[in-house]
Amino acid sequence: MVIQLNENLKEGVLELCKDIAGSRQIVAVCLYGPWVYGYADKKTSIDLLLVLDNFTLRLNTYSETVDGVNISILAINRSDFERDVKRGWLGEFFAEKVTFPYEPLINEEYLRLHEVKIKKRIVSELLENLILEFPESSHEFLIKPEYFIYEIMMRKARLFPPVTYSFLNMSARNLRRKNMETMMGGYLKALEELAKEKQVIPFNGHIKLTRNYIAAVKKRKPRLPLFLKLVQRIALLPILNVFSESTSSLIQDQRLFMKANQKVRADELLSRLEDPKKYVLLPTPLGAVSLSDKFDIKDVARKIIPDGELSRMRVKNIGGVLNDVFVLALTENGKEQRFVVKRFRDWSNLKWLSLAIWSFGTTAFAVLGQSRLEREYAINKFLHSKGFPVPKILYISHKERLIFEEFVEGEKLDETVKGILSSKKDVKDMLLVREVGRKIAEAHRLGVSLGDCKPENFVTKDGQVFFLDLEQATRDGDKTWDVAEFLYYSGHYSSPMSSSNAASIIAKNFIQGYLEAGGKTETVKKAASARYTKVFSVFTPLHIIMAISNICRKMGNDQVKDKSENSQRGM
């Protein structure tokens, strides 16, 4: 039977706190633990946090009995408590008492103030961690405030499993809503402060990260990750184990949990905690998707076309060297729609090794499937918002590493390039090459580097050039690599004995379009350097590389010269 704390008991514990304080000033007192969380029984101790001024012992525990009930008091010096709030001075052993439900008995204002302070720090650390884990997708995140509660629970439970019993007890079905609402108040105030500091933006019951905040986090020098910070804080707990309160409260929580859940095994505990990724969402045309979403191809097909209207579904594997790529064909009322589905695998050591050797010292490719998936999603969304012709994304599943995109039917640009090199294409096709240069320059002006600019990653349709593959794209990559890869990789379609004339014409048209659209001359000139030419010498004929390199150098210099002359005329 769950029991409540009556006023006589509260008065008794306050008298006990006054006895411990003696002549010292009591800064604050609060109740925490099972009695506040709502699952205490007659055997459960009452837990108190006592903050004192000028407490010479600095930290101590006291165990007493009031009206037949065990009382456990954690006493701490004011300055030590405040340092624990500010930077986890004592492993947050004391500060965390105000991150979970608590009942103030003395100086509520002080306790609420420091509750918001520690929750603001927790939120900032968790947001920073999200940005570092998802540097591109974080621009699109819609984060529910509940995320911070469940994420800190999950992290602490993984590092120190015995606390899982407490989290599960306070999250029981009949207690969850009350306890979550109690904890949420401080987090909402912390988010209000972070919004004033331009780190987050409130958005329809969610929060979004500001672009400036994301950029600032990514630019900082590497700091101790939150996971290691928590390890560091938890590592302090053995020092505090001299306090009987620490061990007895854990045993107490285990007893109370097992009393109501006798058949639950210890290895099942973590899976019973709420998945925090459920509260981090990504917008799609089919609705917001959480990072914990596990929908497969068939599930998403039914989202695109409801079961009653879907008469046929076909999935065709069209290969993919580094990813699984499928065409999903759905028939609705006799009309077929086609979509591209990509599953992003982690690259195996052999595949990664060959790419690393090929590009060593020049560029670095994203290897993990999750990283490539989030780049494809986030950069596509960003470019689409700026009017770029990119395939429309319909859905994304982080758990399954799947992305669903519009199927763009057109001619692959590598076929156009091959036709030009073999003299089978009309000179008008050079306009398409020039348009590719323009589009890449426009992306560069927005701060986006595409990362994989091979001609085969572009499709031309009705005079428009679509970017198809953005899994290596970033907001802070090497723009010169984009120019160099397009030009030198185009050159590799030339036969070893062919003239360099056609490859030179392609290079001139591409660079002309690139510079006309605002691409930097310095970027073009850098593409002529050995740093980039050496990468493609493995499969592009040397005389083709030399011809393209000379054009990059000449057109870059000519553009600078023209600007200088125009400037002098203006004088």
Briefly summarize what is shown:
With 571 residues, the protein is of the alpha+beta class.
Walkthrough of the structure:
By secondary structure, the protein is α+β, with helices and mostly antiparallel strands. It has 3 domains: 273 residues, Beta Polymerase, domain 2; 124 residues, Phosphorylase Kinase, domain 1, CATH 3.30.200; 160 residues, Transferase(Phosphotransferase) domain 1 (Transferase(Phosphotransferase), domain 1, Orthogonal Bundle), CATH 1.10.510.10. The chain is 48% helix and 17% strand. It has 22 helices and 18 strands. It has a 5-stranded mixed β-sheet. Strands 11-12-13-15-14 form a 5-stranded antiparallel β-sheet, sandwiched between helices. The protein has a 3-stranded antiparallel β-sheet with strand order 6-9-10, with no helix packed on it. A hairpin with a 4-residue loop joins strand 14 and strand 15. Helix 4 crosses helix 7, helix 6 crosses helix 11 and helix 18 packs antiparallel against helix 19. The C terminus is likely disordered.
Quickly name the level 1 CATH class of the largest domain: Alpha Beta
Largest sheet: 5 strands, mixed
Name the CATH homologous superfamily of the largest domain.
Beta Polymerase, domain 2
The number of domains:
3
